[in-house]
Each structure stands twice: as C-alpha cells, then as structure tokens.
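Re-run with default settings, no changes from the original entry. Doing this only to confirm the output is reproducible before filing.
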Amino acid sequence: MRARRVRSKVSARGLLPAHPWSALLFVLLGGLGLSLTPAYGQAPLFLVNQDTEVRAISFRFMDHQTFEVDQLRAQMATSAPGLWDRVKDLLPLLSAKPYPFSPIELQKDVVRLRRFYQRNGFLAPSIDYPASQLDTTSNTIHVIFRIEEGPPLIIQDFGFFGPDSSYAIEAFEGPMRERWIRFRDRIALQTGTRYTEAEKIRIQDRVLSWMQEQGFAFARINTDVEIDSSYHTVDLRFYLDPGPPGTITEIEIEGNETVSSRVVTRELPFRVGDRFSSRALAEGQRQLFNLNLFRVALTEVPPQPRDSTVSVRIRLREARPRLITLQGGYGPDIGLNAEGQWTHRNFSGGARNLTVSLLAETGVLADTTTEGQAPARYRGAVSLRQPYLFTSKLTGIIGPFGEAARVPRLGESTWIQDLNTLEFGLETTVFYDLLPFRTISLRHAISRAIQAGQAAVIESDSLQTRDLYNKSILTLNATLGAVNDFLNPRRGVLVRPLFEAAGGFLLPGVAPGIQYQKASLEVTGYLPLTRRSVLAARLFAGRVWPRGASRNQNEAPYENRFDPVRFYAGGGNDVRGWGFQQIGEVVFTSATVDTTEDNRLTATVQPEEVGGLAKLAGNLELRLPFPGLGRAWQLGTFLDAGYVYNDDLFNLADLRYGTGLGIRYQTPIGYLRLDLGFKLNPALRDLVSFEQLYLYRNDLITEADLDKRFLRRLRLHLSIGQVF
C-alpha cells in the first residue's frame, strides 16, 4: 500500500508545471484537466489562477437523485452567481458580487458533500468533478459534480430498550405505560426505510423530551447503531433511562432588579410541590417573555443530584423600563403612513404596560382611482395593559382613544385637510390564551362619533345639525387550530370566527346611533407539497344583520354610519385582480356633465363603493421556490374569488375570479410581496373609466362609445407579508 502511494506521488510530480500556483491547482484538481479534450470555450483545469471566478455549479447524478440541488448547494462553501446577479450585470449602476474560485475550498466541498450523504444513509458515495469546464476567455469555471450515491443504508431492526436491555415498556407503569405505547407507535421508524442521522437524532430528542414532560427531570437516552456494510443494513436501538420521577422543591429566581419575584412566580404554570414537567418550564419561559419586561428569560434545571427532588432556576435580564418606537411605510390604499409609541414596561409595578401611541395615515401618494380623493386617518390612544387578571392566561387592556379621518365617500368638509369624521371613546379588551398564538378576545368600544362631510349634513352646515351619534360595539373573536409555524405556516389549519354586536348596551338612557349584528368565519389551510413548496387556501364568509332603527341602513343618516360595518371585496390581500374594495356595486354621489368644443360629452364624477351586507371569498395559492435566487426568494401563483351581496342568498354566479403570479422576498420584518393579478370575468365597470360608466348608465352614450381597455384587467399589488 505504501509503495503504491509513493508511485502515485512520483508520477504526479513528473507532470507538474513549473509555476507553484499551477502546481498546487494541478494536484488539487487531480490532473483531471489533462484527461479532458479541450473544446470551444473550454481549457484544461490546471490553467485556473487566483483571478478565476465561478460561472456556474451543476450536478450530474450517475445512478439516482435523492436530494434537491438546493440542498446540496447549501452544504458547500463554493457558490455561483444566480439569476439576480445576472440581472444586475445587465442593469446600469449595478454590479454583481464576485464569486472567486478556490480549488482548496472545492476539495473541502467534496468532503462536505460526502459527509452529507453519509449522514443521510449513503455509506460510500462517489463524488468528483471531472467534467468541470474552464473558459480561459472569461477566466470563469463551470463546476460540474458527478455524484454516484450508491445503495442506501436500510433499517433492518429498530427498538426501544431499558438500561438493562429489557424492553423500554417495562420502565413505565399504569397509565404512563399506555401513554408510552401511543407515543412509541407514533414516532417509531419503519423497517425497510432509509437510515439517516437526522432521523436518529430527532427520535432521540423526542423521546428525551417525552420522558421529561412526564416528570423524569433527569432522564437519559443512549443510541446504538450497528451497520453492516456488506448488506447495507442498520440495526438501531435506543436505550432509555428515565430515572426517578421528580417533584419541584425549589424555584430560584436570578436577575430581577425592579420586577418583584411575586410577579415572576405568578406567571409560571408550576409551583413548589408540583410534579416536574419540561413542557411547563417551556410554557413559563414563553409567558415571562410575553410580559415585555425581560431581554432574557430562561427556565432551566441546574446541575444537582439525580433524585426525586428538582430545583428549578429562572434566569432573567430586564429590558429598559421605557421604550420609544417609530416606524413608517407606504401602502397603495393608505399612502404614506407613520406610527410612534412610547411605552412604560412596568408602570406602577405589577408588570403593567402603559402605552401612548400616535398613528398617521396621510393618504399622500395613495391610489385615488376609485374614490377620486385619498383617504386619511389620524389616531391617538393611551392604553394600560394588565397581564394578570386572576390567572396568567387572562390579560386586560383599557384606554381612551381619539380619531379623525377623511372618508372620500362622505365628500368635502370645512375641517382641516378635508377631514370629515371625528370619533373619541374608550376601548376595553380582555384576552384569554388558549395556547401559544391561539386566543379568545372580547372587546368593547363605546364612543361618540361625528360625520361632517357633505354627504353627512342633515339640514345645514352647522356642527349641531351634522350627523352626531353614539356607538357601543361588543366584539368576540378567536384564533383556533394548529399549524407548524405561526409566522410562516406550511402545514395545518387555522379557524378565525368573529361575532360583533352594536346596540344600546352600556349606554343607559342614551339612544344608540347604530344597531346591528355581524358574524364571519375565516378558515385557512396549508399543505406542503415538497420540501419548499406549499399549497395554501383560504375561505371567508360573513354577514351583517341591521337591527332596530338601523334596519333602514340604506337611508340617511344610517347609510354613512354603516359604511365601516359593511363588507368589501378586492385588493392586495383579497381578490388580487381588483383594486382595494373595487368589487361590487358602485354609485355616484355627485356628477357634472359637460360638452366639449367637438360636441363630446365629458363627466366629472365622485364614485362610491357600496360594499355589501354579506361576503363570500376564497383564495388558492401555490408557493414555490424561485429558481436561481436562493432561499429568501419565492414564487406564487394564485386563484382568487369573491363578491359582496345585499340579499340573504349567496349567488355563486356573481363571484369575480382573478388569477396571477407573484414574487416574494423574505426580509427580517416579513415577506415583501409583489403580485400581478388578472381579472378573469370583469364586470363592465372594471373595463371602462368611471366617467364613461356614468354616461352609459344615464343613456348619454351607447355601448359602442365605451373605451374598454384590456390593461384594466391587470392589477399590480406591492405589500408586506403573506396574503394569509
């Protein structure tokens, strides 16, 4: 064996070029360049130098392909330009970053890939790159890996045992034995499947977590893996040592300076004397973070004797007591917007949060296609949050608010910036935490509202005769279900029911200005199709029932009061072929018709989206990886449908359908989303201008005079966050 190694070394040395850099490259590349027949744009690989860059990386699979190319590239240090880099090369003032080629790093990548295959059940994969291509004209290299996976390791035997090699079931008694059987059957690997280290570690971690959740604070687990390289089989055995069941005898708190220990312990779902549970420790850690008081909150079991008593330690690091946040943005429906908050994290002790907030949705640069005037909203509020109301799962928030807005459908007013609504009142909300990210909330808002636009004036232009009324609204909603990740779900179902009622409750002796009941249900589901593609779906249905004097909600003054209550359809988070709230009936609150010098009719109109008392909508979206742009990029193709109704029956024939494509880019604050929607079955109002629509409805022009434009079928939406 030594002699063969020496001969190989001497043989290679006899062929080495004189230049040291070329000699090193020649050795690392194994002299493979000499075995290649140079072709057009290709040269022997030993001609690479320090300035050589990677042009592309590709893979050729000689027997079969188990892993996606993106998975293999993620194991490598060597990288190549993607589609976005090529686009930047074509654009002025932009240049793609360099991708230097390192033969040493390439050899390390071969080792990394080989280890990746071995960890995933391929004992002896063959990986090399003899077909790689060097273009000396551009001094770039196309690295082409040749991969032969070989036969995978197959699980031949699998089982759980105790520390004395008896079956693990004997370590548990009574009801716990039944729980162990159900858990074991749920996670057990099937014989005949491919062995992977990741699956072994996953099962090991889950079994250890299960034992700790059952009260075995000092549980241990060992794994024995026997590999038969001749037959490519694996015998996998897990040895469990639960240890004694533990009882919490001490809770030690460290790091709290201004927050009392009583506040900390009341948030914990365990007490001294309780049976130990790692799940309870994790839940306590989550609840401490939710207080918004700590930068660090850790619940742990410090080193201690392995017996039936358990000491739990809570390590804390407090956040700054006062916080100021500022943020701004842009939305096509609200224009430029900004929000600022001042928060006292521990106001008057007890972990209370006092927050003063200001919001400005200016309407600057907003889309005015529909209303002709940009909406605007300015809101100020003070809220006091009490995180513990008799139980750590119940949180209360109370505070006054004031809001002024410009609602285009109400018309102009004499107020500053044409603001035409003013509302001030008191909001009270209680939240009950069912599970993480799943809550039930009850909110009550009592307020005094004024509508001062031209459409809201009842008799004259004085403040006393404008529409001034009282509101008392009670809202109950919930988030139920389960998904794998609440921030970026890929699997599961969420259900969001809502019920709202407005009337005279908590308004003794005062007539309510609006009365109704409102209910809606939204169901979203997520199904992974591949490792990086997801099929997402959403269904929404809602209905409003006007009550009392508000039954005549189409007549003044209730018509304008009901505008915020009614359902609307269309927009970047709804049916994406349409603009914001642009599906359904449209009326014109004002219009002026003129005749041009060439006897053509023109109109100046003020459109208003009517909305509906009921809504039915659905979305279907396929989310895919964007080829060549990395894991942060995503493609989406969608089909949306929706409509709003003013009768009791949902007529499916009225549904408006939109389809399209979108691009998403994942940022630290969420997905930046660009969607292009296309109307599949537009109404007449969707294809012509509002001016022409008004003239046509009033028989001032014929259908032949209408300028129907195909481009009106398209709608572009720029948003932050997934649609659902």
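The first helix runs from residue 2 to 14. Confidence is low (pLDDT under 50) at residues 1-42, 457-465.
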